[in-house]
Amino acid sequence: MPGLALVLAFVFATMPSAHAVYAIAQYGEPKYPQDFKHFDYVNPDAPKGGTLVLANPDRLTSFDKFNPFTMRGNSAPGLGMIFESLTTGSMDEVASAYGLLADDIRIAPDRLSVTFHLNPRAHFSNGDPVTATDVKFSLDMLKSRQAAPSMQAYFNEIVRAVVVDPATIRFEFHSNNRELPLIAGGMPVFSHKWGLRADGTRIAFDQIAFEEPIGSGPYVIERYSNGRTITYKRDPNYWGKDLPVRVGTNNFERIVYKLYSDDVARLEAFKAGEYDALVEYVARNWVRRDVGKRFDSGELIKREFPQHNGTGMQGYVINLRKPMFQDVRVREALDLALDFQWLNRMLFYSQYKRIDSWFVNTDLQAKGLPTPGELELLEPWRKQLDPAVFGPPPVQPSTKPPGSLRANLLKARALLADAGWTYRDGALRNAQGQPFVLEVLDDTSAAAQWAPILAQYTQALARLGIQVSYRSVDFALYQKRLDAFDFDITTIKFPDVQVPGAEQLDRFGSKAADEPGSGNLIGLKSPAVDAILKALMLAQSREQLLDATHALDRVLMHGYYVVPQWYSATHRVAYKNTLAYPAKLPLYYGAVDWIISTWWFGREPAPQH
Fold first, then answer.
1. Which fold has domain 2-262+571-601?
2. Which pLDDT band, with edges at 50, 70 and 90, does 6 fall under?
C-alpha cells in the first residue's frame, strides 16, 4: 500500500479531446490557462537554500529499500521527490493535470488511447534524456508480477504502452474509462537503466533494494544511514525548475528524514529542536504536550491550517477472512461498542468529528434516500443486499443523552444473539461452545497513542463477553502481517481521494481480496460491489461518478466492515519560526507534501486565512 499511495500522489485527471493540449481536466476545463506562470498557492520569489529536517511521516520506523513499488520490505520516506510523471496536478483543483515530463497530451476520439509527447529538456539524474522507451519500461515493470499487487491492480486496465518514436509514447486501454488517461499521465517514470549492472545483466525488479533510483525529479539521494536517516539533495541540474508547475516549489537545498522509534521519542525530539516541522495527528499531544519553553518564546509555532480534502476512512478494520466476522450483525455489534463521545470528551479535547462515510467531508458521501441514478446501480442486486441499503445511510451510534453506552451494548448483545453468539460460562460463545476471542494488532511505534483509546473499547467489548488481546509488533512485522492478511482487527487510515477511481478496485474488488499485499484488507468479495466499481470506473460525467460513489458508500457503510473512528477538518502543524509558507493556502493538500514542496526558510508571513 505505501507504493500505491506514492502513485496516487502523482495521479490527477482527464478530458475528452482529440487534439494535443497542455493540460487536461476530468470534467470541464483546467483552472490555469496555457500561458500561466505559476500556481496561485506558491511564492514565485521564495528564496532557495537551507536544510529541512523532518521526522517519520507515518508509522515507518526504519527502511530497507529505495524501491517503493514492490511488496518486499519498507521503502524510505521521501522517494516521491525522485520520481516524476508525465503530468502533475495542482492543489487548488479537484482533478486537473498539467504537463510535466510531457509537453502535450492527445486523447483519442474513442478514448481508447492517449498519446504523450515528451519535453525535449527532460532528463534523468544521470544525464540521460527521458525517452519513450523509459516510459514503456516503467509501465511494464509496474504491471509485472514483480511489482506489488496494488501496482498491478492499479495499472491493469492499461493494455500496453507503445513507443511511437523516441519522444512519443501511446498508452492503449481496455475500455474508454475516463480515468485511464489520468492513470497513464500520473504513472511514475524511471530509467530503464535502474537495476542494470555494469556487465549488462539486470537485477530483478522485485530484488532492487539500495540500488539508487534513476529518476527525473528535483532531488537525488545524497546519503543514508542504518535505515534510520536519509538525506536528499536538490539536483543542481534539475531540468524542470523553470516550468510553470515547478516555479516557487522545491525551495530547500536538502531534505533530511530522521526516523524515531515511537511517537513519544519523535515528539520529544521536536521539542528539543532536532527537526523543523511536525504534523500533529494526536489531539492530546496538540493540547497538552506540544508545549514548553520553545513554544512560549516563539521559537516554535503552532498553527491549524484549514483543508478541503476528503478525510478518507480511518477505523478498526475487520478482517472478513475470519469466520466470526462474516455475519454483518456481529460487525454492527462491534461498531456499537465504541463510545466516540466519551473518547472525544475525555481524550481528544472535543477536537474531532465522527466519521460516518467512506467519503466524509466531500460531495461523494451518500446522504438521504438513493437517487434514481443510485437505484439503477443497486436494484439489480436487491436480493443480495441488505434492504437497509435502499434507505438512508446508517447513523453512527451515539452516547450523547438520551443515548448511552449501556443502551448501545444492549442492542449489540441482541444482534450477537441473533447471530448465534450468547453469553454463558463466563464468555460469549457460539452454538459449538467456542468463545469469541479476537486480537487487535498494532505496531509498537503507535502503541502509546492507542493504548488509552483501546482500553475503553476493549472494556466495552468485555461487557459483551468478547475476549480481546492486544498485540504490538515492530513496523516491519506489522506490515508483513497486513500483507499476508494475518490479523483480526487493526487500525488503518485509508488515504483520501478527491476523484475515486482505480484505487477503489484495490481496496474493495473481489480479485484483490485474494492477492497478498493488496489494499483489500477487509477481504471483501461482493458481486454487487464489483458491479458498482465497474460503473464508477466507466462514469462519463460527474453525475455518473457521484451516483456510483454514493451507491458504493451505502453498501460499504451498511456492511459494517470498519468501525469508523474520527477526523479533523484542519492540519495541525508545529514548526520552527525560521520556516515560512505562501500567503495563499491550497485547497486540497497533504500537510507534509505542502511543506516540502512550497515552504522555505525565511521570515514568517502574516497569516492570511
1. D-Maltodextrin-Binding Protein; domain 2 (3.40.190)
2. low
